[in-house]
Amino acid sequence: MQAATSPExxxxxREEASVPRNLAPQLxxxxxxxxxxxxxxxxxxxxxxxxAMEDIGLFQHLCDEVGIRPTYVIDHPVASQExxxxxxxEFASEGRAVIGAHLHPWVSPPFEEQVTSASSYPGNxxxxxxxxxxETLTTTIEENFSRRPTIYKAGRYxxxxxxxxxxxxxxxxxxxxxCPAFDFTADGGPDWSxxxxxxxxxxxxxxxLGLPTTGAFVGWLSRxxxxxxxxxxxxxxxxxxxxxxxxxxxxxxxxxxxxEGYRHAHHRRLTESLLARGVRxxxxxxxxxxxxxxxxxxxxxxxxxxxxxRSCRQYFEWFLETLGGEATTPEELxxxxxxxxxxxxxxxxxx
Length: 351
Ligand SMILES: [Zn+2]
Description:
Layout: H1 7-10, E1 14-16, E2 26-33, H2 57-66, E3 71-74, H3 76-80, H4 82-93, E4 98-103, H5 127-145, E5 151-154, H6 163-170, E6 174-175, E7 200-202, E8 208-210, E9 215-218, H7 225-233, H8 239-248, E10 253-256, H9 264-276, E11 281-287, H10 302-322, E12 326-327, H11 330-339
Parallel strand pairs: 2-3, 2-11, 2-12, 3-4, 4-5, 5-6, 6-8
Antiparallel strand pairs: 1-7, 7-8, 9-10
Helix pairs in contact: 2-10, 7-8
The chain binds zinc ion.
The site of zinc ion has 5 residues, from loops.
């Protein structure tokens, strides 16, 4: 297993995508669609149950009502089991949703690595193993959904040094793996804490589009966000204590556009802060098992599930109605950004 490398080096060759200034705020909704597992236990290759997928309609119906086509990035247990793929297959074939790929290496064949925290980030795997796992997942999705996926999101935001070439080889055009403001190095994962919310083109001919999960440091200390956060995470301080103090004072909050651990007030604060910084593209994300109480730490009871769905609805309605934003999908957005792309400079004239 190689040590985690920084996204700054894995994605050194990238260029920020130019987004028209007059573009209405764009909303992507991404569901990490996966097996139920014990989030507090070590990773287990045999945990492949997808019973919670029977409840996915609850979220789809909300999206249908407000006019959003969610993107379900699905992993191997979901793609390979009838129970996992049945409903989302229907939603996709009816044009109500989009399917992408999500690689959880510990439940994705071939199984050759020792399962650890570090190897749960697919970008940490040897290049060849990461390639064979993603190839298997891609083919499984293609066979069961009659369409080859073009959208990828690494499990645990684990984009690695070999991932770009791999996505190019397999025909992917969009990557959703970046997670700005969050640092997973303590667990062997990538450090996205200094990453920007802006979309970016990458790959040999820059035809891959990176669309980060929306997350950011917000508050008057936000420009120093990552370094203040790093200092606050070190003993004798800890983020749990100093983070709460900083956020109560309005100085610094680290927020993610997700109903998991964040409320509507957070979603609005994050969105308003990023809009003021010129960000136009927002990606709201959640995990499919959160739709069944007891499957993730965020939703433990029916009452919590109701609050969870309500906070999604509240944000979607606020974004689309009050803010005047538009719902989109990764592929629609890519088409739009391709047309506004600055053409590369012409080759030098022959001497
Ligand atoms: Zn996942």
